[in-house]
Amino acid sequence: MEPIREELDQEDACSLSPPESVNSDVAALASGEAAAGNTAATADLDSEEDEVSLPPSINSDGEPEEKGWQCCKRNCSSLFAEETLEAESLQQNLGTASEIQQRKFDLLRAVYNKNDEDHQKKGLQFFFQAERVCRKFWEHQRGVSPKTVDHWLKLCRAGQITLPKPGPKLGKATPQLERANLWFLEVYQLLADPLALPGSEDQYFFGRQEPLHSEQQPPAIVREIVSDTSHPLYGLSLNITPTKGHSSAAQVLAPRRHVNFSTLLDFFRFYCSDVAPSEQVSRTTWERGYNTFWARHLILKSPTTGNKCSVCLGLDEKRTNSTSEAERFAVDQEKMLHLETVKADRSVNTRGNLKCSDLKNFQPNFQHTGCVKIMIDGMDQQKFSMPRARRLQGTSEYGKAWKTNVHVTGVVIWGVEEQYYLLPMDLPKSSSMECTILAKALDETKKRLKEIDPSYDLPCHLIVAVDNTPREAKNQYFAQFCAYLSCKHFASVQVEFLQVSHTHNELDQRFSSMASLIKRCDELQSIDQLQSYLQAHMRPAQGRSLSVHVLDNHWSFSQWFAGQTSCQLSGLTATKLQPHANHLWRFSRREILEQELIQNNHDEWALWPENPLDICMQVKQYISSPEMSQAPEVIMPYQVYQKLSKNNLAPSSLNKFAPTTLQEFRKTAELVGKPPWNLLEGQSYLLDLCERNEAGVVPKPPDLFWVFSFESQSPRLDPVIGPALLLEDLPPPENAPPRPIRVGAKKMAMKRPAAGPALPARPIQMKRPASSTDLPAGGLANVIDLEVSDRPSSAAAAPSAVAKSEAAASAEAKSQPSPKAGGVKKMRRPAAAVEKPPGSADAIRALPGFECFGCSKCRKKQTPKIGCQLCRGKAEAGQDGFHCSPEGWIYRLEPQNVD
């Protein structure tokens, strides 16, 4: 043992102590010897290192040797060669991820099938290349976790052959982003405007891209695709019935809408003022939600797109001019209140659309509580010009030619039908047109309901949503027509107006579809061709039916009510001095109203006894207002309704074309009818229109069967006023009170005597002489007799010598300078010193110093002596010589000369 120990000691000493040559080399390097000596020393060192030996436990790289992987006591890996295991591993990992998983499942299923029934129930025996191995080795070699093996064994016991396809991965929870999306959805539904622009369609529905008329051109994308299943609009679209001819697996399309904000910063400021600070998200999250989900569907309105709300625009300008943060905060709060009212109105409007779209309203058991909603709106005439041809567009002659416009009015009866009425250019757009279309729509709706089910009928409550325009709907004649409908046909009629510049509705988007459809047509030569084309190619929305009608004329309802009701409604529209008006009218019978106090401001009607069938009018400032803005008022007593007769209803007169218009239309007819265009039908349409208008032929209006039918002699009695479309939880509006509505006796205009001369085109006012001593023979009466109604026309004889002398005296008096001292001084007559004369026009003219009736603006009207609102205000204040007679006539006196 001692010799062996000595040898080990010598080996350790050699391994620990360097040789002497190494020490000498180090000393030589430290002393700075020559390079030759260094080279020799290095060679000696290399030769010594080759002779040094290390223990076998120490590796050359200084790391411990890796031990082999062992699965169990048997060490299953030792049964196979290392090259075999590597080749098997490479073979099973070829292909895609799904193919690899299916291959591993097949291997496990083969192992499962190789075991007998006892082992399949109790415990499996695993095999690898016909050799029995442990489960740990099999899982390690196949690259499968124990949890996955347990899951696959359950599938094998259930008889599964292939792996089930993985479902979609659940997205990461983003509560802040979802909170912002809910706010965007509310803005999209209640505040955004469905403008009539390309790409702003009206409904969510399944459908493909609608192909163009020409197959050579690619299809136009008119709607935005909702591809994200987590998008709120995708969930809303799934509740809509698929369009006919399209499967539910088609792409989900959603309409575009526009918000009245020019920049994203203004939109975010509204969000900060609309949402409580504790519920707000960060600006980064808010912008990420808008850019990710809503940038294509909720579009910011550019300054040149559509009409802007004057209130919103004024508040934006006011905020720009603000100098402090407090002022800007106050403006933001004011705008928020305004937009909250707009959102509330749209919410009520949307709920009414959904409620009235249910066909249950027309069933016999629900007619007393059901309601039908009709939306009426008109489209710009310039988008429908006749005749038109695609091959003519772009030519200079066709561009300069005058073309006739067609007025298109759309009517949507929610849940039933879409109706479009085409009117020629010379037909006036007025309240009579609106009343005729509403009556015709009710007739067509009743026919359509009978086609759906013979038991269906119109319910007892009617809701009419119209545009906020005084020319067509927001006037006294349309209000009287709605009151007429509530006499026997309906228990209540409700008229709704959205706020000005926020009146865009679903019909605007339907018009957008119609306009894009007409642009793709090759040619349209007449209004009849337009009707046929729209009936064949226009596709309704939400499963409704569609019909297109041509109205050659309408009934003159305005003259019908003016001649038989003898009442005047004031306060229906807004004015400059009173900018707030009511946006909801409701007409119902006296017996249905619960209020005890019902106003009756008509002098004649107040003397009549009250009747349960009197029609009363209730108004609200906004559609969503929880309370009425004033007490109910009688608008059509039962005695007046009984006097209304259809026999007194006459057709409306057409608008006369100017001679230049007739000439240009005939030139256009000659242009389109000559070769190579040969639009003969368009030429005939233009010539017939000009000939009919020039001859003054009045076409026949449509027949209105149901409105003037007597099949229901007894009125529909129902204590229920109508659908509960009010937001009771809203606080009363803090805006200024609306303009009160008054129903009074109609003011009769003074007519000129039949035997008098014709009225001149622009009357000349005769001034009174400056001094009473300069009056001609006959006194002041001769001057007063030359008033407008008694003055000869330009075709009459020349003025008399007396009139010439009066004019010369007046001119001489005006040319003389007024003395500064001791002369005549002009003094205004005090308003209290003038006694109010009786109401005759001759007595007013006989007053000393009479000058004229009203102002120059009033005298241009047909009834100038009533006076405008400004003149009446001056008369009440006694300014500028204006006075008011007991009959309400406004006249003016010149200042009296006082010595």
UniProtKB/TrEMBL annotation:
Biased composition regions of type Low complexity, renumbered to the chain: 27-44, 752-763, 808-821
Protein name: DUF7869 domain-containing protein
Domain DUF7869 span(s) in chain numbering: 400-572
Cross-referenced InterPro entries: DUF7869
UniProt region (Disordered), positions on chain: 1-67, 751-776, 808-840
Signal sequence region: none
Source species of the chain: Durusdinium trenchii
